[in-house]
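B., you asked whether I could sanity-check this one before it goes into the benchmark set. Here's the sequence:
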Amino acid sequence: MTDTTDNRPLAGRLALVTGASRGIGAATAIELARDGAHVVLVARSVPDLEAVEEQIHAAGGSATIAPLDLTDGESIGRLATAISGRWEALDVLVLNAATLGTLAAVTAIDTKEFARLLTLNIASTQALIAAFDPMLRKSSDARVVTLSTGVATAPRAYWGAYGASKAAQDVLVSAYGQEVTKISKIRTHIVNPGPTRTTMRARAYPGEDPATLKTPDVVGRAIADLVVSDAADGTRVDLPR
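And here's what the prediction gave me:
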């Protein structure tokens, strides 16, 4: 039963965040829970998910962990079945999980690694949207948020594989938004976090001083604020450094 005395903006709402075991995903999950949502935490690492769940509970929020390899499409379907058996609607879907891959010239991209990157960064996005579309349609105000990157719109040498995958992800989510905007309460948003103190950023820029970068909680708060705002479908947010 929903606590009617809870006036937090996402009280009684259900959110699902992928890549929620660390970095921006964990920070977003924490902020959504802070705003009252029950958050389903999706990632592969059980210990890391449990740590985020404990942090949410310690702050008075609620969360459920869902250890999952998003490259397994059948697992995504099973997760959707399990969640729909417990909750009627999904109000927030944050598509954060992604892999950087090896930065390389287009002619030097490793075929097998590229296939794995496309599976996680693009195919899992489509699978998640397809699996949770019925629950999103049952929400009175559903939001689908995907994390993007500057190289998705401004190509950069050696970033071709990652940039192409994120550009494709942006197109998938935006197209979905246009398909459902007039027949449902679903709105889609794209967030480019910009330079942020994450493990992925450290891999891409090993010589960079992390102290010069904003922390993931800044991005998480921006995403939560976007979710509770009246932003139009297709809104894109580019966060500053």
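One thing to flag: The first helix runs from residue 23 to 34. Otherwise nothing jumped out at me.
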